[in-house]
Amino acid sequence: MRRAVVAGTLMMGLPWALPGGAAGSASAGAPAACPRHAAPSRASALRVWVPGGTPVRTRLAEPVDRAPATLYGSWRLVLRAHPTAHGCLLRVRLDRRPNTAHGWVAAERVVVRRTRWRIEVARAERRATLLRDGRAVGRWRVVVGKPSTPTPRGLFAIQAGYRTPASSFAGAWILALSAHSEVLTTFEGGDGQVALHGRGGASLSDPLGTAASHGCVRFDNRAIGAIVRRVGRANLPGTPVAIG
Fold this sequence. Notes:
The chain has about 240 residues and is mainly β. It is built from 2 helices and 17 strands.
């Protein structure tokens, strides 16, 4: 689980810059066609930049002008596409409780990018795998949640990446997920959001390959640094993370 200073940073909802070729907001213009193969697979997934203020429907049949909420500018993982008479709706993962939370956004309002990257965490084996095009390109032993505060199971997405001092408890990098602890409703000033992060300071006392965290997945600093370098920091948000 993250330290209090990280929780405070995440609550600010700082937007990510769009990567090359996607500068600016998506324009609300002509109806958009639904992308093919929208559901995430081991080989590929869609992530979308959702401009701030975009209406999000909690139910597919909900009229767009009655959408009860909007999203801050952020990348989201696409779970499904649904064609309509007026275009296409995309079901996206939300970074709120419960861990299955999702919403529907209009495709013409977002910028769509396909990612070839995926991270898989096997809790029983206490091992994480980085995949590109469905093929493993890196495997590492990790620390997962202890039995009283287990790492949640499900399909999540990276919400943001933060570089932190390598000697800090969370190590060199923190990759905050859309996942939340199913045991802890709050943790050190935050809402119990789960992250992938490195190891440093007191967290080094828990060996890799053990179940000892409050729910986060801890990597060796070199391992999580390799993930950031290979995927690319700007491409991290919206990357799928499957925890089983």
